[in-house]
Amino acid sequence: MSAGAGPAPEERGWLIAANVVRWRRYGEGGQELRPGTKSYRGGSKVYVIESYAGSGHEQLTTIGRGRRTGTYITIDMATRNLHTFRAVAVHSPTVLRLCEEADVGGCWTAREDAEELALRLERLAAEYRTAHWSAAHPVPCRCHECLTLSRA
Fold first, then answer.
1. pTM for the model
2. Is 78:92 a contact under the CB 8 Å cutoff?
3. Are the beta carbons of 14 and 110 closer than 8 angstroms?
4. Nearest-angstrom CA–CA distance, 152 and 70
5. Looking at the predicted structure, is the pLDDT value of residue 60 above 70?
């Protein structure tokens, strides 16, 4: 292997990647829309490094590039603000280092474990978005559900 070619396969880990919703409902009854979240731009790719099973996976610890600085940050965020969960092999030394520094158990070792949790988180995120806002959607609405339905 040539120098600078990246970590060896045994050094890589499997994590769950997801994207931040482009628009999220906000305010009284969810009648306002805001782009992305306070920490991440809408559509940003983040890595899930821990899910709080005791809380039903409502909060996740994520690593991603911050909205303002563009540098990697580690924050806890609501699962409902993420979508398109998938298992990915992590090659970034920065992401792997932040994963270790977070001291949350690190990367999943088996691809199958990461894929199984990604499927579960995708289903739960959709349920949490629906349950969190019981009021009708604003008109016009650009939240994740409405944008997904308009493409179908």
1. 0.78
2. no
3. yes
4. 33
5. yes
